[in-house]
Amino acid sequence: MSYYSDTNPTAMRSFFIIFTVFASFLILASCKNTKNQDRPPVSDAEIDINVLTENLSHPWELVYGSDNKIWMTERGGKVSWIDPVTGSVNLVANLTEVVSRGEGGLLGMALHPDFVNTPEVFLAYNYLKGGVYTEKVVKYRYNGTSLINPSILIDNIEANTFHNGCRLLISNDNKLFISTGDAGDKPLAQNMNSVNGKILRLNLDGSIPADNPFPGSPVWSLGHRNAQGLVFGNNVLYSSEHGPNADDEINIISKGKNYGWPNVEGFCNENAEKDFCQANQVVEPLKSWTPTIAVSGIDFYTQDYIPQFKNSVLMTTLKDNTLYQLKMNAAGSSVESMTEIFRGTYGRLRDVCIAPDGKVYVSTSNGSNDKILVISKKN
Q1: Residue 178 burial by Cβ neighbours in a 10 Å radius (0-12, 13-18, 19+)
Q2: Alpha helices (H) along 298-360
Q3: Which fold has domain 49-377?
Q4: How far is 54 from 88, CA to CA, in rounded Å?
């Protein structure tokens, strides 16, 4: 007798229930697939690159402030803000104490996150202290026209005509991060009695946070040669760093970690490096470049304005004359791809900053008629 004959009504009811559920599943799956197919993919935007302003001299830091102005340092000692619409440059300070030698001078800058209500400007620069070339970080107040009330946050950082760092960054919890170079004295990067070759972390008044990894020390991480870029993205702190003749790096900076210099260049792939890495729990870079490209300033793109840039580190290079896009994975823990945004047209590139509306600003570093470029979406 057939299982599905009229003489077995229970079996027939079971069959129709199973058939109805299965058919419903197929219809829902079909609708879902149709819905996904109807959703157009996000397409790349065509971009324009234009000169916003020019006739600058070694611009070093670009910061897009909460006052909707682009703040800029020039290595010779000038601090200015730039109107992002007209490109007009407005000088707010010319620090005569700054001494520019080689790669040294007025370097990093950060603005208080609530700059409109707390107009504090943080600057890092080289100067002569008792005839010795030295670096310090100073906090100023902006009174609407000029910088006033300097307050030294940290001093006596060894300086040189090269390997000075010195990028500044303020985190969401109002901590000041400072990158310092080894000032040409390699062992300093592993010397915990020195603040050179480190990433430092301070409170905004210059005091040492209680939760720093080494009690009583401003050191957040060590083993750095010459970190040129700092940015937060995906709640991750990224840094770009110059190598010697090999192994420029992009790193994720973690609390209390050792990044190897001068015992390690790039990855832990040499026998001597492997021993040091194991003994000191060295953090390897996300990516390295050999031959070096002289990586410099970085920023993190989160906006929708230029969709192909989203979730990427944008990185300037000096030697390579290129602006790169490093597309990160969703967690921000690895580089999925690298794209050249432009190469060679404008010479050396020092820094990049991103406006809240998604436009990108890039500074050149040629020393003669330097420029600020703006990357926008074609209409």
Answers
A1: buried
A2: none
A3: Neuraminidase (2.120.10)
A4: 10
Q: SS3 of 35, please? A: helix
Dist. CA 319–CA 42, nearest whole Å? 34
Distance of CA 198 to the CA centre of its chain: 16
Task: Kindly report the number of other CB atoms within 10 A of residue 347's CB atom.
Answer: 15
pLDDT tens-digit profile of 155-188? 999 999 999 999 999 999 999 999 999 999 999 9
Say what the pLDDT of residue 368 is.
86
**Rounded distance between C-alpha atoms, residue 274 and residue 252, angstroms:** 20
Q: Which residues lie closer than 8 Å to 367 by C-beta, 6 or more apart? A: 57, 58
* Residue 253 DSSP label: -
Two tokens, residue 104: 């040294």
Count of beta carbons in the 10 Å neighbourhood of residue 96: 8
Instruction: Tell me the CB-side half-sphere exposure of residue 322, using CA atoms within 13 A.
Output: 14
Contacts of 50 (CB under 8 A, 6+ apart): 373, 374, 376
CA nearest neighbour of 97 among 128, 74, 121: 128
The residue among 244, 272, 276 whose CA lies nearest residue 259 is 276
Q: Which amino acid is at 248?
A: D
Task: Tell me how many degrees the CA angle 26-29-30 measures, rounded to the nearest 5.
Answer: 85
Beta bridge partners of 201: 177
| Cα 4-8-11 angle, rounded to 5 deg | 60
DSSP string, 271-299: HHHHHHHHHHTBPPPSEEESS---EEEEE
The model carries a pTM of 0.89
The pLDDT, as a whole number, for residue 40 is: 55
Asked if 224 and 179 count as a contact pair (C-beta separation under 8 A), the reply is yes
Structural contact between residues 241 and 251, judged by C-beta atoms closer than 8 angstroms: yes
**Measured distance CA(59)–CA(77) in Å, rounded:** 10
Within 8 A by CB and 6+ apart from 321, the residues are: 343, 344, 345, 346, 347, 348, 349
Task: Return the SS3 of 8.
Answer: coil
